[in-house]
């Protein structure tokens, strides 16, 4: 009898633990249950005697994994009775008000939860299972499932799958990979780097190509994973059959859920999530255009519009955006005792420390909101201005110091916006030379960063950036402070690789001609001494292949994104030797296929793919089954 009641107790506590195991119930902050969902209210709705009929449930958006550690990784899926998203509005009280699709009324009690099993195995047949569990999901969290697979081996490939409890209604099979232990010697890591995937501007072919090539270990997304606009405000979705839903500018929780869900129907995006673990951060458009601590270009906040819980103070629109992002992205919740933190770092063997910043939402001083551009030019040199806020800045500098101390070969810094000074005067013929929304608008923060690197002789720094819809490759220099020689690279302390958009248009004109784009690139390259390669024409991405002695960046340009295809052109390649802190000379091997290369040449392409020379990867038939 005693044994039996112990069993019952274990079972009960085990079941309770399963609820908390779906990280999304406590999203977006473990430290602020009031911002999450009240689990006991969800548990009360569970009736084990009448579970969902598995046949009525679908995996609506594939599977995903992310934020790999040496012994664990985040797994994601969505399984529910409808591909439409949930219309609950979660308030600070953690209580979800629900829309009942049957009665077409808002009700205060949502539907019963769905029971989901997951398994992680070393083989594709899922026979050698190394971790498994049972969790619940429900309408409160838009039927998303996010769990942490644990007890894994470092730098190992795993396969994972979800199933509706006790049924063979299974999800697609996902593949993922843990990172090496911090003190492991690793010889080679490959990552694909992305930004600015804009659904109504084109197909996400860029996500699919590394899947087809199986060319990398991990994926980094530097933000602008979605855009908040109505199609008519920014996009030509009508002409290519990609109008993002809801077809309006997004504000509510439902809107943000629906928008991410629409993007997640792109087959190449789904394939990338299914095959590679992602390490994403948001830029501004995951919330709204040009966001900063207190608002955005489209929103002037007042004290009243802020939700408050403990140290968190956030406007309702940002809260909706952040909640949907955490529900849908395979990321961890880092310690979040404050402003909805996403910045975090990864130690990848002795080879890499990857530092992912939030230069947008967290605690950024005021930015260019279009009506205040003149004011921005008055204040951009103020010492008090910060892109990150003091807490993140201190963490950033300590992380860099600690990384150098532990002897990690490379420090790779994922920044949303371009770090290097870019003087735009001659290309724009403008008298306001710098982009106030990039690091150029926050010079004190940039100087503090450079000062730390130079003062402590911290080398092998590789900055990554997105946001700009163009490619910029620079030696990392402190202009006006440290001498720099562009022909040798002497004086530089690293390299910046900034990449083009997956599909967002060229900033010098949508559908610009190759010749016109190259003309602008030549002007930009020649008037910025540390900028060695600039390209405006191609939408695309780049891969980093990181070794102990050398790091390579390979840039790929997509000939067209107005329809789904697997074509790409290898437009430029760069190397950095460990210890040299500059682009290897001759930069780009002396030749690129697009844009403008300092001291180098361009092989003229006409923007189309020569299908004879192996630069395309799959036939249209293969694409159909991906
Ligand atoms: C689930 O997906 C199948 C196949 O796509 C479809 O026929 C079915 O209607 C879907 N069920 C629901 C409840 O959406
Ligand atoms: C949720 O909020 C949106 C606008 O933010 C509103 O239109 C809708 O009626 C709200 N739904 C509920 C159930 O309160
Ligand atoms: C915000 O305030 C400024 C200055 O008063 C004004 O020019 C701008 O139009 C306002 N923006 C919005 C979205 O209300
Ligand atoms: C930008 O370049 C122009 C000349 O093209 C120069 O007059 C101006 O001083 C430069 N501005 C900065 C901030 O470097
Ligand atoms: C940043 O450093 C540059 C070069 O020394 C200097 O010209 C500029 O005034 C500095 N700005 C700030 C805000 O520290
Ligand atoms: C840069 O270095 C090269 C090679 O050492 C040298 O010839 C050139 O004079 C240097 N340029 C400047 C501006 O110092
Ligand atoms: C650019 O191309 C797209 C897709 O073909 C088209 O819908 C759009 O109208 C074009 N825009 C301009 C400004 O020419
Ligand atoms: C590019 O620049 C060249 C030389 O300045 C000029 O002759 C040509 O017309 C320009 N082409 C375009 C498309 O702007
Ligand atoms: C870049 O490297 C790839 C693979 O090594 C090669 O096929 C391509 O031609 C290179 N591109 C350029 C512009 O050098
Ligand atoms: C581009 O060049 C390829 C060969 O390199 C050629 O087959 C194709 O016809 C050209 N396309 C255009 C639009 O000129």
Automatic annotation (TrEMBL):
<keyword id="KW-0732">Signal</keyword>
<dbReference type="InterPro" id="IPR032093">
    <property type="entry name" value="PhoD_N"/>
</dbReference>
<dbReference type="InterPro" id="IPR038607">
    <property type="entry name" value="PhoD-like_sf"/>
</dbReference>
<feature type="domain" description="Phospholipase D N-terminal">
    <location>
        <begin position="61"/>
        <end position="178"/>
    </location>
</feature>
<dbReference type="InterPro" id="IPR052900">
    <property type="entry name" value="Phospholipid_Metab_Enz"/>
</dbReference>
<dbReference type="InterPro" id="IPR029052">
    <property type="entry name" value="Metallo-depent_PP-like"/>
</dbReference>
<feature type="signal peptide">
    <location>
        <begin position="1"/>
        <end position="17"/>
    </location>
</feature>
<dbReference type="InterPro" id="IPR018946">
    <property type="entry name" value="PhoD-like_MPP"/>
</dbReference>
<dbReference type="Pfam" id="PF16655">
    <property type="entry name" value="PhoD_N"/>
</dbReference>
<dbReference type="Pfam" id="PF09423">
    <property type="entry name" value="PhoD"/>
</dbReference>
<feature type="domain" description="PhoD-like phosphatase metallophosphatase">
    <location>
        <begin position="192"/>
        <end position="555"/>
    </location>
</feature>
<protein>
    <recommendedName>
        <fullName>Alkaline phosphatase</fullName>
    </recommendedName>
</protein>
């Amino acid at each position: 009898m005693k044994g039996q009641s112990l069993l019952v107790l274990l079972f009960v506590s085990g079941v309770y633990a399963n609820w908390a195991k779906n990280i999304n119930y406590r999203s977006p902050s473990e430290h602020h249950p009031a911002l999450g969902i009240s689990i006991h209210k969800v548990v009360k709705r569970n009736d084990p005697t009448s579970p969902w009929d598995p046949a009525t449930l679908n995996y609506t958006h594939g599977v995903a994994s992310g934020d790999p550690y040496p012994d664990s990784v985040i797994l994601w899926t969505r399984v529910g009775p409808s591909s439409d998203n949930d219309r609950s509005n979660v308030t600070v009280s953690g209580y979800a008000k629900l829309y009942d699709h049957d009665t077409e009324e808002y009700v205060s009690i949502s539907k019963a939860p769905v029971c989901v099993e997951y398994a992680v195995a070393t083989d594709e047949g899922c026979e050698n299972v190394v971790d498994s569990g049972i969790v619940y999901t429900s309408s409160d969290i838009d039927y998303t499932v996010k769990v942490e697979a644990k007890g894994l081996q470092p730098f190992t490939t795993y396969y994972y799958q979800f199933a509706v409890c006790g049924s063979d209604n299974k999800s697609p099979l996902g593949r993922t990979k843990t990172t090496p232990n911090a003190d492991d010697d690793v010889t080679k890591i490959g990552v694909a780097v992305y930004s600015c995937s804009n659904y109504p501007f084109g197909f996400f072919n860029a996500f699919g190509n590394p899947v087809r090539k199986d060319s990398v270990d991990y994926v980094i997304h530097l933000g602008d994973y979605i855009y908040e606009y109505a199609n008519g405000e920014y996009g030509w979705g009508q002409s290519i059959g990609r109008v993002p839903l809801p077809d309006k500018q997004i504000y509510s929780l439902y809107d943000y859920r629906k928008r991410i869900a629409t993007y997640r129907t792109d087959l190449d995006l789904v394939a990338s999530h299914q095959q590679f673990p992602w390490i994403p951060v948001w830029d501004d458009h995951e919330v709204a255009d040009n966001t900063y601590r207190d608002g955005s270009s489209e929103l002037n906040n007042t004290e009243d519009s802020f939700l408050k819980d403990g140290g968190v103070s956030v406007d309702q629109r940002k809260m909706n955006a952040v909640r949907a992002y955490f529900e849908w992205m395979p990321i961890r919740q880092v310690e979040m005792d404050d402003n909805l933190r996403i910045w975090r770092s990864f130690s990848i063997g002795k080879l890499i420390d990857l530092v992912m910043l939030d230069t947008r939402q967290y605690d950024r001083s005021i930015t260019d909101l279009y009506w205040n551009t003149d004011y921005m030019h008055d204040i951009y040199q103020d010492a008090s201005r910060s892109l990150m806020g003091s807490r993140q800045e201190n963490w950033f500098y300590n992380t860099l110091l600690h990384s150098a101390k532990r002897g990690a070969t490379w420090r790779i810094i994922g920044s949303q916006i371009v770090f290097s000074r870019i003087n735009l005067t001659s290309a724009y013929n403008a008298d306001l030379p710098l982009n106030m929304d990039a690091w150029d608008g926050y010079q004190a923060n940039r100087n503090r960063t450079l000062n730390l690197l130079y003062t402590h002789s911290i080398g092998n720094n590789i900055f990554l950036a997105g946001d700009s819809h163009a490619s910029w490759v620079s030696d990392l220099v402190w202009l006006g402070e440290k001498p720099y020689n562009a022909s040798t690279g002497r004086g530089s302390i690293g390299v910046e690789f900034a990449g083009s958009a997956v599909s967002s248009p060229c900033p010098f004109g949508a559908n610009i001609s190759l010749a016109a784009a190259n003309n602008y690139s030549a002007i930009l390259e020649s008037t910025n001494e540390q900028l060695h390669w600039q390209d405006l024409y191609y939408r695309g991405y780049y891969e980093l292949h990181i070794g102990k002695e050398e790091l390579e960046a390979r840039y790929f340009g997509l000939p067209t994104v107005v329809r789904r295809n697997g074509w790409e052109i290898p437009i430029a390649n760069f190397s950095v030797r460990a210890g040299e802190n500059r682009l290897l000379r001759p930069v780009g091997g002396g030749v690129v296929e697009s844009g403008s290369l300092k001291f180098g040449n361009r092989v003229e392409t006409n923007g189309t793919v020569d299908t004879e020379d192996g630069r395309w990867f799959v036939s249209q038939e293969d694409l159909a089954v991906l």
